[in-house]
Amino acid sequence: MSILRDLERQKKAIESEIKRLEEKIALYQEELPRLTERLAEIEEVIEHVRQLPRYQQKPTMDSVPQKEE
């Protein structure tokens, strides 16, 4: 195979790889706003749930009380 043919083959392979990556980037750019919005929603719910008495952190005890015999 001549050098020129080899270089042309490499060029086509790189062009194909670039096109494939550009398509992936376009898909990720479409997906990113949706995921960012969902993350914000989840963070909002987490903050709301943390305010509920059931989920508020209780003070920790230094030692566990021993069972009386």
Automatic annotation (TrEMBL):
Keywords: Coiled coil. It comes from Geobacillus stearothermophilus (Bacillus stearothermophilus). This is Uncharacterized protein. SUPFAM superfamilies: Tropomyosin. Residues 4-52 form a coiled coil.
